[in-house]
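Morning F.,

Quick status update on the modeling queue. The single chain you submitted on Monday has been processed. Sequence for confirmation:
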Amino acid sequence: MGHREDLLEGAKRCLLAKGFVRTTARDIVKESGTNLASIGYHYGSKDALLAQAYIEMVEGISDAFEGGGELSGEPGSLERFADVWANIISTMRDPGSLWRLSMEIVALGDQLPEVREHLAQAQRGGARGIITLFHGGNEEDVPEEQVDTLGSFYLTLMMGVMAQWIFDPKTAPEAGQLAEGLRQVIEAATPK
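Structure tokens below.
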């Protein structure tokens, strides 16, 4: 690996160990075996490097949402909804999970403007990708309107589930409870 890749891998390890705020450029350099100047050269700033490392970690964990590509239920069905949520929730069970880091970013967003900017751009891609998990299809075929509505809905639900799992895993919802809640919403909204 070159310095760019070494920095990225070192930044990932630092983020998981220390979080955004407590990770220093010197920590990353020590962890990656590189030098301080290489951060600016390859990424522009420590915050840009940390944002890129975080985005890559989220992209990596999102593969687990597919459950090895074996999702049950028809796209758009309650069965698919429950299956995807079971996979997502399984990534939240680890006390040292990436999702704790995500909550730090949410809580400190105003204090991390460069990180926030990078992540805001990546969030649209995340919204587009999560739609295809639940409804099938290809990301490039998802219309912008759906990214703004359905994608935002799923990301908002994910943030709430994430907060509950981090705050109190004993009472956090399981996938079946989420699917039943959605079923009840659909039933209440369906004219009789």
